[in-house]
Specification:
By secondary structure, the protein is mainly alpha-helical. It folds into 2 domains: 75 residues, no CATH class; 241 residues, no CATH class. Keywords: Membrane, Transmembrane, Transmembrane helix. This is Transmembrane protein. It comes from Pyrus ussuriensis x Pyrus communis.
């Protein structure tokens, strides 16, 4: 609340942090102070509203006196903030529900294609081991150039391509996680989170996305990155190119890999993929991961556009919706 001195003009018009002049004379015999609220108003005092004093006692001043209203601009109502908090709370609940559905449907319940984790078959275990050995096609490549310390398992190129495509995309998430501006709301190790996501199961990313929506602490101080986080952050362009190359090679391998292995034409491989997704729990889970990545990639990039060079924000803001490319 601002206080106007007795020398102020009689015609008052106050707006936020604006100076308004009045042409009417000030009355020295008026009350000592008048109060100005930050809400704009126009008050005109005529002879009927003035104190009942003889006109001769009025002191007239022909000078224009500036009236400065120093009231703070009214802050926006909290309804927008409350609405944002409410929407984030609902989104957080939805993420936790999605995590519960993911675990129940893909790990425990027997209704999804393939075997649940408590009744996993030996064929599924052997397939998982073989896919892990062909991680990023390292063993098949070494065998192709004559390095045969370990023979790469021969699996259907569609299954190998799908596996490495998801792993390559997971690899590209590392710089996003280690540079996320809300990462410190997750109180556990980001190294462990990304390691579990990369080498075990992608179910760990959904809880992270929910936890990062927690309210920030008032005494928040950014934490220092781990050695792994520094490597992934400083080498983000290399990580992105390497992960993108793996995804591209995976797609090409699925269509054209092992052409001498009687795995059929492209149409036959596509038919295999449809049957593979409908009969193998691991492959079925990969489709869930691809869908979740397609949602989380633009989300994380959009929340961290301040880390992007100003000249590239426009293109990144569009490309973030393109799977893998963003």
């Amino acid at each position: 609340m601002a206080v106007v001195s007795a020398t102020s003009p009689s015609l008052l018009c106050c707006t936020d942090r604006r100076t308004v002049f009045s042409a009417r004379p000030a009355l020295g015999s008026w009350p000592k102070t008048q109060f100005c609220t930050p809400k704009p108003f126009l008050a005109a005092l005529d002879s009927q509203t003035r104190p009942s004093q003889p006109p001769a006692t009025y002191k007239r001043d022909s000078k224009l006196t500036p009236l400065v209203c120093r009231a703070d601009r009214r802050k926006p109502t909290t309804s927008v903030q409350q609405e944002n908090d409410g929407s984030e709370r609902l989104l957080q609940i939805a993420l936790w529900l999605a995590e519960g559905v993911y675990i129940l449907w893909l790990f425990l319940l027997p209704y999804a294609p393939g075997d649940p984790v408590w009744a996993i078959s030996s064929d599924t275990v052997n397939s998982l081991v073989g896919l892990s050995l062909n991680f990023f096609f390292i063993l098949p490549f070494l065998n192709s150039v004559g390095v045969g310390l370990i023979d790469a398992p021969v699996l259907h190129p569609m299954s190998e391509g799908l596996f490495n495509f998801v792993i390559g995309w997971t690899f590209m998430f590392a710089p996003l996680l280690f540079t996320d501006r809300k990462r410190d709301r997750y109180k556990w190790s980001l190294d462990a989170l990304w390691g579990f996501q990369m080498f075990l199961t992608n179910t760990f990313l959904i809880p992270y996305m929910a936890i990062r929506l927690n309210e920030a602490e008032s005494d928040y101080t950014p934490s220092t990155r781990s050695q792994l986080g520094s490597v992934m952050t400083n080498g983000a362009p290399i990580v992105g190119l390497a992960g993108g190359a793996i995804c591209l090679i995976s797609a090409l391998w699925a269509l054209f890999g092992r052409m001498d292995g009687n795995f059929g034409s492209i149409s036959e491989r596509w038919e295999f993929l449809i049957g593979y997704l409908g009969s193998e729990r691991l492959a079925y889970a990969f489709i869930w991961d691809i869908c979740s990545y397609a949602v989380f990639q633009p989300w994380l990039i959009g929340d961290n556009l301040q880390d992007v060079e100003s000249s590239k924000i426009g293109i990144v803001n569009y490309l973030r919706f393109v799977p893998v490319v963003g």
